[in-house]
Specification:
Keywords: Methyltransferase, Transferase, Transit peptide. It comes from Sphingomonas turrisvirgatae. GO terms for molecular function: methyltransferase activity. This is Aminomethyltransferase. This protein is of the alpha+beta class and 242 residues long. The protein folds into 2 domains: 10-131, Aminomethyltransferase beta-barrel domains (Alpha-Beta Plaits, 2-Layer Sandwich); 137-238, Elongation Factor Tu (Ef-tu), domain 3, CATH 2.40.30. It is built from 6 helices and 11 strands. A 5-stranded antiparallel beta sheet has the order 2-3-4-1-5. A hairpin with a 5-residue loop joins strand 2 and strand 3. The chain is globular.
């Protein structure tokens, strides 16, 4: 098996204690009941208006939850979650271990956003950094992280959360739920984050990757232009709206 599997830009947070799942259930976009040892889930922590602050993958950890997040956002995410803890007997702390990825099966589970993204698992920090992950993700039109999603800039459904299994519409209340649910029931997502060939950066641009010839932009759905529109996004765009 290749040892070049480490996603060096990812770290872990452990949320444990009495009803840790219940604590997160009232905060994040995904249903914690769906998080199982063989089924991590992509989720977001939003503003009250439904805009993305952080995105991450939730893993089962024998009653606790491990949050697979951006390494350079780990401290900020710990602080944000701790704001909601109040006096609940919940521990929120950085955790040992790292995130690994491979395009080939053999270890881990399929990425919860899109199976074509490859296989993901948690392990130690051994091995070299994975090569090809960033380009592979972007070529599939999948955006992630504060640089691409923004912080308090993009509505969660504009991050393609419904199409990439990042939200539950049946779980009940969470921060930002009201506006997110309203957009879903009205089938009204006017803008989306998309990957496009590298061009001149403008107000819509979120991130640029000159070495890959790609950029991430926040575009209106009627003006996607040369955006990368792969199968999952094409289906969403073709769906009838009310």
């Amino acid at each position: 098996m290749s040892e070049t599997t480490l996603l060096a830009n990812r770290s872990l947070i452990r949320v444990s204690g009495e009803d840790a799942r219940g604590f997160l259930q009232g905060l994040v976009t995904q249903d914690l009941n769906a998080v199982r040892p063989d089924a991590p889930q992509w989720a977001g922590l939003l503003t009250a208006q439904g805009k993305a602050l952080f995105d991450f993958i939730l893993w089962d950890d024998d009653g606790a939850i491990l949050i697979d997040c951006e390494a350079d956002q780990r401290e900020a995410l710990v602080r944000r979650l701790s704001m909601y803890r109040l006096r609940r007997p919940i521990t929120i702390e950085p955790a040992d271990g790292r995130v690994h990825w491979s395009l080939e099966p053999g270890q881990g589970v399929p990425d919860p956003r899109l199976a074509a993204l490859g296989w993901r698992w948690l392990g130690d920090a051994a091995g070299e950094s994975a090569t090809g992950w960033l380009e592979h993700r972007l070529r599939l039109g999948v955006t992630e992280g504060v640089a691409e999603l923004g912080s308090d800039k993009t509505l969660w459904l504009e991050c393609n959360a419904a199409e990439l299994n990042g939200v539950s519409f049946s779980k009940g209340c969470y921060v930002g739920q009201e506006n997110t649910a309203r957009m879903n029931w009205r089938a009204k997502v006017n803008r989306r984050l998309v990957v496009a060939p590298l061009g001149e950066a403008g107000e819509r641009t979120r991130a640029v990757y000159p070495e890959l010839g790609l950029m991430v932009e926040h575009r209106r759905v009627e003006a996607l232009g040369n955006a990368v529109v792969v199968g999952w996004l094409a289906e969403a765009l073709a769906a009838p709206s009310e």
